[in-house]
Write a structure and sequence with these properties.
Length: 289
């Protein structure tokens, strides 16, 4: 079992629950078929370089994933997912011991390798439902969890979208799922929720999700939002290429912060940090460090 760095756990816990400013999570997809960058970071050296640059640009967290979760995507083998991610995490944490790193995975073996390499957050798009052993690892390791809502699987999530109540069904999902995780012994301070924008939601529902995000604040958990480069943004501005949606993404980022997001997940870290700081200053009517 990986022994997570106590100072990282303590520092991130303080940062997570400090309401002085929004935290920025930089996205690094070490996959050849990412929807957002078309495999731009598919290679250890470029992924490490990108991570270090994101930290310099002000990222509070790096989220590193080795399996594409774009609509229609298929899973990759466990060994390949570990090969894509663990060396990148290890290199970044070795060069920047203070870096807070998240592993984007649905599998226990991948998460274990990432924690061994220096990660302290497990970000599971399935909400810790695909692999029962993953929630056990989260509990035993003391890692932070990002529990995301997704309708179905990446392969099917956009093919049959139905809710009895929206966003009520998502609220109910979190209410139950968080209780289940806490009941097995996971600390309530370690859980972050992500409503999963773009993961089994229609165009209209994505807009509703951002506009009514504050409804999830009643759950008492930090909220993470990741609208970066998503298809609904492309539809609004008429831009089919994901990599050309960064400016428009900033509007969704700012609105997410206004509606209660504590963490925003983005590909363009430098611009996101700037927009977050300005949005925070206006909301709080002062500048925070």
């Amino acid at each position: 079992m990986a022994k997570l760095k106590p100072f990282l756990i303590e520092n991130f816990n303080k940062l997570l629950f400090a309401k002085s400013r929004t935290k920025v999570m930089g996205v690094i997809n070490t996959t050849p078929d990412s929807f957002s960058d078309g495999g731009l970071h598919f290679g250890h050296d470029i992924a490490i370089e990108t991570g270090l640059r994101m930290l310099d640009d002000g990222a509070d967290i790096l989220d590193i994933g080795g399996e594409s979760t774009r609509p229609g995507s298929l899973p990759v083998g466990i060994e390949e997912e570990v090969r894509r991610t663990a060396p990148v995490i290890s290199a970044i944490c070795r060069q920047r011991p203070e870096a807070v790193v998240s592993i984007d995975t649905r599998r226990k073996e991948v998460a274990q390798a990432a924690l061994d390499a220096g990660a302290i957050i497990i970000n599971d798009v399935s909400g810790f439902r695909d692999d029962p052993d993953l929630e056990v690892l989260a509990k035993d390791s003391g890692a932070f969890l990002v529990v995301m809502h997704m309708l179905g699987s990446p392969r099917t999530m956009q093919t049959d979208i139905h809710y009895d109540s929206f966003p009520g069904d998502i609220y109910t999902f979190f209410d139950r799922r968080v209780a289940e995780l806490e009941n097995i012994g996971i600390s309530q301070e370690k859980i972050i929720i992500d409503p999963g924008i773009g993961f089994g939601k229609t165009f209209d529902q994505n807009l509703i999700l951002i506009n009514r995000l504050n409804e999830f604040s009643r759950l008492g958990k930090p909220i993470l939002m990741g609208p970066s480069r998503k298809a609904f943004i492309g539809r609004i501005i008429g831009e089919p290429e994901a990599s050309k949606r960064d400016i428009a993404t900033l509007a969704a980022i700012s609105m997410s912060i206004c509606r209660g997001a504590a963490i925003v997940r983005a590909h363009d870290v430098k611009s996101t940090v700037q927009v977050s700081r300005v949005t925070d200053a206006i909301l709080r009517e002062k500048i925070e460090p």
